[in-house]
């Protein structure tokens, strides 16, 4: 078979096209890189903004949650692990109906049903029991985050299952270290961050509701489950 060779003219044209394409790509490369970088930055900013809205609100909320203690110069220690197993003592499980039946501790009485919808209550039961890890930067200065909740839970369980009096006394001494530690649930934000709900174990168990007024979280009302 006879193979036709490209003429010098065709070779020159092809070579010239290769040079032109190479030059074109060289000139376009910075533009392409800049375009890709811009897209990446826009995506990152969008993702970062979505990911940190809740964290920002938690940080602002915690200023209101511990405002009273910090204004008195008290030491505040919070467990890093959010409480997942909180419950309303007289109910078998957290339900929308059960939550909406609650009201505030003091007069004038505020009922959950006057503030929250059934969908809100379902969200509280669902998201308020989710696993969550608090970070130190979510709290104002003066609040310390502790990672010892696992040890506290272990000691508590051992205390309530201990048989001997001496064992109970020893466990009680170890538990006293954690008497001032606070346990809180993952905050649940409702109605486009108009309200915030959280459970707190502090001298008993309480369900607290905060309200945003003039861009600042303020305590709205609390419903106490158990006092100790």
Strand content: 15-25%
Q: What structural class do the secondary elements suggest?
A: alpha/beta
**What is the multimeric organization of the chains shown?**
single chain
How many strand units?
Answer: 7
Q: What is the count of structural domains? A: 1
Overview of this protein structure:
It is a single chain. The chain is α/β, with parallel strands linked by helices. The chain has one domain. Helix content is 46%, strand content 19%. It contains seven helices and seven strands; from the N terminus they run ααβαααβααβββββ. It has helices at 8-65, 67-71, 96-100, 112-115, 118-127, 149-161, 165-175; strands spanning 76-79, 143-146, 181-184, 188-190, 195-201, 204-213, 216-227. Strands 1, 2, 3, 4, 5, 6 and 7 form a seven-stranded mixed beta sheet that branches. A hairpin with a 2-residue loop joins β5 (195-201) and β6. α6 packs antiparallel against α7. It starts with 7 loop residues before the first helix and ends with a strand. Mean pLDDT is 83; it is low at 31-35 and 43-48.
């Amino acid at each position: 078979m006879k193979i036709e060779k490209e003429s010098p003219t065709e070779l020159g044209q092809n070579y010239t096209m290769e040079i032109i394409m190479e030059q074109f790509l060289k000139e376009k490369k910075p533009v392409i890189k800049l375009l890709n970088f811009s897209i990446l930055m826009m995506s990152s900013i969008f993702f970062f903004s979505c990911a940190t809205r809740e964290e920002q609100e938690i940080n602002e909320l915690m200023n209101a949650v511990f405002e009273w203690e910090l204004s008195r110069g008290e030491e505040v220690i919070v467990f890093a692990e959010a409480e997942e197993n909180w419950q309303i003592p007289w109910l078998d499980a957290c339900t929308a109906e059960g939550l909406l039946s609650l009201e505030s501790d003091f007069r004038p009485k505020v009922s959950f049903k006057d503030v929250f919808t059934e969908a809100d209550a379902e969200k509280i039961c669902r998201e308020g029991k989710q696993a969550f890890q608090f970070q130190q930067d979510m709290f104002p200065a003066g609040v310390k985050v502790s990672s010892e909740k696992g040890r506290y839970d272990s000691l508590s369980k051992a205390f309530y299952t201990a048989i001997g009096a001496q064992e109970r006394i020893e466990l009680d001494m170890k538990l006293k270290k954690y008497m001032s530690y606070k346990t809180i649930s993952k905050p649940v934000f409702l109605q486009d961050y108009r309200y915030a709900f959280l459970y707190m174990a502090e001298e008993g168990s309480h369900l607290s509701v905060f309200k945003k007024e003039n861009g600042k979280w303020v305590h709205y009302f609390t419903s106490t489950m158990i006092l100790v």
